[in-house]
Model the fold of this input.
Amino acid sequence: PPLDALALQEFSAHMAQHELMMLVGAPLLIAGRPLAVCLWGLPDSLRARSGRWLQSDISGRTWRLFTAPVVAWALHGVVVWVWHMPVLYEWAIQNESVHAAQHASFVVTALLFWWVVLRPSPARGGTAAAIALLFGTVMHTGALGAVLTLSSRVLYTVYTSTTGAWGFTSIQDQQVGGLIMWVPGGIVYVIAALWLVVRLFRESEQRVARREAAQDASAEFR
Done:
């Protein structure tokens, strides 16, 4: 609060809420490495069972499937686009259970996406694959933001009776919401991609340094 209550009255506030979940909350959770902490917070018996399940073959295969770069990227993208279809979006506004499911799907798929991006590994294509996922996401979320911003008609009529109280017309509210997704949202992805580009260069320098050191060591024994 007050953003949660305001999100039911203004599309732009709801969009800001979604962006905070997916672009701030989710990456911060991943950066905090929460799995071990969550396990230690469980009761002893449940912790042991959870640990065994996490180490099982089924768990491993499932985790590898959902954290495959293309799968994580596609799941997150599909969820973002599908929930912004007017009929589903308005259903979520009018039904609290559907609203909770909407937010849960945003957060869960964002966690998978940011896990792949912030913890790149050679098995998942490394840093280069993470950079490609970020730029792919910039493109499709930017396209959705542009659709919302440039549309000449109100797509979400559920807000028609509530936006006037805040000095916005419904179309202005929709345009502001589209801009929030298009510009600040896009900037977050670009910053993350640039950080990974720097990391990629450092990895390349380290590989070159190791190769040169190995060559020097080999030359000493000749």
User: Anything to note?
Assistant: The chain has a mean pLDDT of 91.
